[in-house]
Specification:
Elements lengths: L1 H18 L4 H11 L4 E8 L5 E5 L5 H11 L3 H4 L7 E2 L6 H5 L2 H7 L4 E11 L3 E10 L7 H40 L5 E3 L5 E4 L1 H8 L53
Antiparallel strand pairs: 1-2, 1-5, 3-4, 4-5, 6-7
Helix pairs in contact: 1-2, 1-7, 3-6
């Protein structure tokens, strides 16, 4: 039951780390514990997107050496391990040959390790994920139970990495969108469901300072009551009336005498 509980905790920690990347070291530490290891390193890289390199049990000086070996000259015996299959290193290379390898001399020996479980979880042109568990020098080799635990956890690591990449990508797109909005020469204000301003771009802030718009004290602001004024109806002038004179009545014009009079 202790092993099962450790595996469950490791899986839970991995998925929690996808939402809070600062917890990746704790997640890898739980993976090491579930796999019966003293140390562990997860290296996940993609041709486009962020690279994830997390360790547990290694010193700050050990990590760069391990990364160089993984990224630049991964041994042929590791490349020969089938994808998605965790294996003890002793099943693919003898102890004597391992001691003579560049990986051991450059990275494993300085880190104080020896036996390991190597799990190439994903291997492709655009993405690679390698999970490695290690025991301190002088400790016994890993057991089959350790390998099985690593196999169970490994599939969840792959899924978690996909989720983490999508989240990281969406955050990048959101950041680019915010930068584009910030560069606009029109004011943009984001409001919540209560019509309170949450975010304003620089142009909107400048307009607010110039009193062209008001974004100050959004929580206490209230819409102005509409001004009501009684407007008296404009009095229309009396309609004009025109009187048509009788046919026999001469029309007098100013300044002129009527014709036919003395």
């Amino acid at each position: 039951m202790q092993r099962v509980d450790a595996i469950h905790r490791a899986i839970q920690s991995i998925y929690e780390a996808t939402l809070a990347p600062e917890h990746w070291p704790e997640a890898i530490a739980s993976v090491a514990l579930a796999g019966g290891a003293h140390k562990a390193i997860l290296h996940a890289a993609a041709s486009c997107g962020p690279t994830l390199a997390v360790t547990s049990g290694f010193s700050a000086d050990d990590v760069p050496r391990l990364q160089r070996e993984i990224e630049n000259r991964l041994p042929a015996w590791i490349e020969a391990i089938p994808t998605g299959t965790p294996l003890r290193q002793t099943s693919v290379i003898s102890d004597a040959d391992f001691r003579m390898s560049d990986l051991y001399d450059a990275a494993v020996r300085p880190a104080g390790g020896f036996y390991g479980i190597v799990a190439p979880l994903v291997r492709g042109a655009d993405r690679r994920i390698l999970l490695t568990l290690a025991r301190n020098a002088g400790a016994a080799d890993f057991t089959e139970d350790d390998v099985r635990a690593t196999s169970v956890i490994g599939s969840h690591v792959v899924t978690a990495f996909k989720v983490w990449r999508r989240i990281a990508g969406s955050e990048g797109r959101a950041s680019a969108t915010c930068e584009a909005i910030a560069r606009l020469n029109v004011g943009v204000v984001f409001l919540d469901e209560t019509m309170r301003p949450l975010l304003a771009n620089p142009c909107a802030e400048a307009l607010a300072r110039r009193a062209m718009v008001s974004c100050s004290k959004p929580a206490g602001s209230r819409p102005r009551a509409p001004t009501t004024r009684a407007i008296s109806p404009r009095r229309s002038p009396p309609p004009r009336t025109s009187v048509t004179p009788d046919a026999g009545t001469p029309i007098r014009r100013r300044g002129r005498r009527p014709r036919g009079t003395a």
